[in-house]
Write a sequence for this structure.
């Protein structure tokens, strides 16, 4: 099945959502999603992700600003006329209907398509989703994965301009989640349908999307491809939220080219000092460095001495938790390395991968790093 309309971009212009209790859930939100893009919206619980999606779907009023699909504002357009299809976390299947009916019901209700055409679309989509043998079953008789496929199939069968997906995989066990994640990506690539996918899982966002929207407290933090969000976080919030285990942060002051922390000094190459965007910012700073951007057991001048506190065996990689004068520092090392707790070790921060945040959380050193996004496991996946 191919897309019927090639103008399926989504433009958010100064979008604001205020709930009835005067709570501002989304504010000053601007973004343009291109036709055919797979966008994930990621952020902590309560950051406004679902609200954003529900405004596009027509399940919530837009308090201020505008949302356009293609060149047309969706304000005043009935939800069923917006060309969108939504997949929910709980699938929202009709329990008393068969899979076939669940998939055809929306089409019957909202289109003039002849029965034969609807039947054919349901059949084709069921085959695409691998649920053709379940068409006469009721949802209660299906596994979680099959229910997820029915919910996705029901969205696909409508041949929408835009898919809206709200945490569609969070009810699946860890192994199935990984499988369905690749299945959804493959489907979206095949169909080329613009997709907005909400998740609280930063790993899902990093692995699935063309670009990531990072939200916090209803405000856009960054909208960029995964590598950029990972390597050039716009601010401390993004740096901390994206990546697992999280980036290390140390309180520092800048004296010339030296970063002075609690119990360590770090010499920043002058070429990097020259790129600091605010030359007045010298105190109240934080140095940020990812666990994989630290050399364990390093030699040379610019090293920091630390003590091994905890060794976490994670399979192909291990994580060493070090103590630097009371500050914790996580380092990613290869799986073969298992130091003894209490060992003293010298470590080095890769200067190209050092981030520096000012007191307001702004990243003063963007554009300095190009580390590949590691295929880290989420906490839940580690258990399988
Ligand atoms: P997320 O999807 O990121 O978890 P939501 O968009 O669901 O966040 O919610 C954003 C904020 O808006 C939350 O603080 C939530 O409590 C609030 N909120 C959501 N729906 C309503 C509502 N119907 N009435 C009042 N507040 C709401």
């Amino acid at each position: 099945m191919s897309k019927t309309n090639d103008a399926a971009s989504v433009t958010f212009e100064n979008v604001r959502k205020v709930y009835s209790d005067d709570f501002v859930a989304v504010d000053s939100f601007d973004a343009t999603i291109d036709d055919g893009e797979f966008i994930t919206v990621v952020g902590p619980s309560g950051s406004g992700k679902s609200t954003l999606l529900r405004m596009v779907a027509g399940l919530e009023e837009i308090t201020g600003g505008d949302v356009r699909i293609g060149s047309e504002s969706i304000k005043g357009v009935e939800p069923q006329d917006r060309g969108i299809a939504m997949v929910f976390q709980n699938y929202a299947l009709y329990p008393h209907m068969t899979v076939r009916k669940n998939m055809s019901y929306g089409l019957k209700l909202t289109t003039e398509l002849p029965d034969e055409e609807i039947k054919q679309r349901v059949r084709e989509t069921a085959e695409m989703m691998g649920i053709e043998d379940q068409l006469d079953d009721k949802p209660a008789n299906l596994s979680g994965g099959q229910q997820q496929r029915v919910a996705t199939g029901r969205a696909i069968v409508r041949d929408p301009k835009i898919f809206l997906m709200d945490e569609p995989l969070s009810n699946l066990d860890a192994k199935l989640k990984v499988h369905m994640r690749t299945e959804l990506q493959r489907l979206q690539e095949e169909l080329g349908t613009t997709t907005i996918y909400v998740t609280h899982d930063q790993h899902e966002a990093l692995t699935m999307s063309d670009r990531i929207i990072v939200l916090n407290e209803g405000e856009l933090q960054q909208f960029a491809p995964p590598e950029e969000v990972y390597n050039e976080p716009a601010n401390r919030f993004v740096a901390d939220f994206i990546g697992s285990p999280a980036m290390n942060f140390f309180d520092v002051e800048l004296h010339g080219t030296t970063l002075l922390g609690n119990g360590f000094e770090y010499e920043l190459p002058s070429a990097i000092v020259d790129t600091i965007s605010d030359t007045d910012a010298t105190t109240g700073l934080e140095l940020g460095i990812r666990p994989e951007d630290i050399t364990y057991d390093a030699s040379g001048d610019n090293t920091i001495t630390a003590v091994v506190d905890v060794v976490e065996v994670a399979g192909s990689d291990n994580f060493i938790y070090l103590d630097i004068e009371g500050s914790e520092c996580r380092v990613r090392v290869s799986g073969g390395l298992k130091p003894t707790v209490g060992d003293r070790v010298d470590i080095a921060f890769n200067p190209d991968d050092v981030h520096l945040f000012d007191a307001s959380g702004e990243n003063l050193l963007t554009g300095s790093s190009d580390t590949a996004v590691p295929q880290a496991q989420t906490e839940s996946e580690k258990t399988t």
Remarks:
- The longest strand covers residues 24-33.
- The chain has two domains: 10-231, 237-382.
- The two ends are 35 Å apart (CA to CA).
